[in-house]
Amino acid sequence: MFQDHAVLQRSEHTPIWGRAEPGERVHVRIAGLEGETRADDEGRWRVDLDLSSAPAGPFNLTIAGANQIVLRDILVGEVWLCSGQSNMEWTVRDSIPEEDVTGNPSSTLRLFNARSPGSTSPQAGLLGRPGAPGPQNAWSVDSSGSAAGFSAVAYFFGKKLNRELGVPVGLINASWGGTPIEAWLSAGAMESDPDLREPKNNLLAAVASYPTRLDAYRRDYPAWEEKHQRRDVPAQDAAAFASPGSPGDGWTPVEFPDPALAKLLPDGGAVWLRSTVRIPKDLEGKPLTIVPGVIAGFDQVYWNGRKVGETTARSEGVANDRVYRIPPELVQAGEATVAIRIFAPAGGAGIDLSSLPQWRSPLHLFEGAWEAQVEYRLPPLSPAARGELPGAPVKPAEMQNVATALFNGVIHPLIPYGIRGAIWYQGETNVGLSHQYRSTLALLIRDWRSHWDRGTFPFYLCQLAGQGPKQDRPGPSMWAEIRESQLKSLDQPETGVAVTIDLTENNVHFRRKRPAAIALAQTYGRGGAFSGPIYDSFQKAGREIRVKFRHADGGLVARELPDVYVPDTANPGKTLPLVQPTPGSELQGFLICGADRNWQWASARIDGDEVVVWSTNVADPVAVRYAWSDNPVCNLFNGAGFPASPFRTDDFPGVNDSARYNGRPY
């Protein structure tokens, strides 16, 4: 962390630390300030400097002991930790045209990508992460090159602070796409929660034992295969089945899930599955991910006749979801043939698609027509031989998804680097635990504050944006429930929520301004609006319900809605008509119900600082909801241009109130 171009937090206690020989005297000097200490018995040392009145710099930071280190171009200003999953990791390069990457680069905006693998034990330093975007584990001065591979949400947040405050800003991007919140918690925090303690311990035990179990399988399966003569000997060349235009004779239509597929090979052998998918023009030349689910057997996957992946008895994750990448040079607009060869040594070939909803691939592989053809069949196995078949171990999780792993590997090495606060953008991976998320998020906030020991530092988060197609009927929504859990973080001190319900997942152009507005108002006392309308209370008035809001700055506003929307952000060229659920209503997105809890689309209008909600189908209303779906049609804003947060006035049971973290692979 202490390198050329770093930004140190302006505060009364800014820690500088490192390692030396036990007992070695260490002297630290910067901006005319000095401190001295001795390394402890393990060689660790720390000096806290009062930089609260220090000028911005640049300075040299000198650390002298048995040797001397001089770090150059060090600034004093505001440092923010920026963390979460894919929406925080999403880069500037992927968000705006290359020519607009920086606009006017600032020499006093500094960027640090904290990259390191997950770990089951706390690490002292950052080790790097191959393939992660941007420069790693080094401070960079703002430029088109350094900004392009940096978090877009973090970058535009820092850019605005830097411009508005006129002080140096340092951003530490500690994010990793697809990761659950449990990976970012410390072991101590998870031990303190009875709902997290046992799953965490079970998962860590499974992670620790997996290499041994995998080695046993790799030893025992080939021996079983040899003993019972179940080797896979292809009967024909793959091109006969996998290439576009290969003969269509002998193929049988199949659907998923389809128990008939397993019956094609009752005693084992090889079977081919084949389908044609259409690639839209906007995906041409881009890398794609295909996820065939959990396959019973070993497999090879072909794209237009070219093998793009396989799982053998030597592979990790034989019992897990398959995830294969299609190189961009193979992705051409038009039709593509996907073929999967499954070898099932004991029969029962099949594909389990139950986990596929979590994978957001633009290719919906199993929604189209598929066909199957048997390549060859093996003779029957005796019951004794079948009973000896070794079971493949389930890989517990990728390390970055293991409970505590990213706290240990990424966050712990950053502590106690001086920070003003943190911004957080995460939640998609935890949608299935939407109710529990409110307590887990509160725990993470307390956990990080406790470890940094800098008091109740500001913690601001982005609420999840709209995801997927618009719903034409009222119904339950885990996405709405996790947004509610995120909003509940406002019950913690020094927190804020940037509402993004009017945006799609990868649209950062407005999202980039909202966390900064919160920080400028709440942390730096700049005043001004920083939030959209937040539900406050309601009152029944005959057949109507009147709803009051906080943060109605500039009055409540019904914003005009577009005619179309993008249902899948992975395929931005495809649009659908946007249908307003309550035609003729000033406001869209409101629901109302009576005691029967039968939700109806509602009419709604603005009346001063209140919204009046009603439906001709509900004579005696008891509750109202707003923007309560995965990707709602909604248009309530305040005069300052901030959208209202989704809310509900009821406390009816949710979709997964009883769902609890169980350490499962994500």
TrEMBL record:
<dbReference type="GO" id="GO:0001681">
    <property type="term" value="F:sialate O-acetylesterase activity"/>
</dbReference>
<feature type="compositionally biased region" description="Low complexity">
    <location>
        <begin position="122"/>
        <end position="136"/>
    </location>
</feature>
<keyword id="KW-0378">Hydrolase</keyword>
<dbReference type="GO" id="GO:0005975">
    <property type="term" value="P:carbohydrate metabolic process"/>
</dbReference>
<feature type="domain" description="Sialate O-acetylesterase">
    <location>
        <begin position="419"/>
        <end position="524"/>
    </location>
</feature>
<dbReference type="Pfam" id="PF03629">
    <property type="entry name" value="SASA"/>
</dbReference>
<feature type="region of interest" description="Disordered">
    <location>
        <begin position="228"/>
        <end position="250"/>
    </location>
</feature>
<dbReference type="InterPro" id="IPR036514">
    <property type="entry name" value="SGNH_hydro_sf"/>
</dbReference>
<dbReference type="InterPro" id="IPR039329">
    <property type="entry name" value="SIAE"/>
</dbReference>
<dbReference type="InterPro" id="IPR005181">
    <property type="entry name" value="SASA"/>
</dbReference>
<protein>
    <submittedName>
        <fullName>Sialate O-acetylesterase</fullName>
    </submittedName>
</protein>
<dbReference type="InterPro" id="IPR008979">
    <property type="entry name" value="Galactose-bd-like_sf"/>
</dbReference>
<feature type="region of interest" description="Disordered">
    <location>
        <begin position="115"/>
        <end position="137"/>
    </location>
</feature>
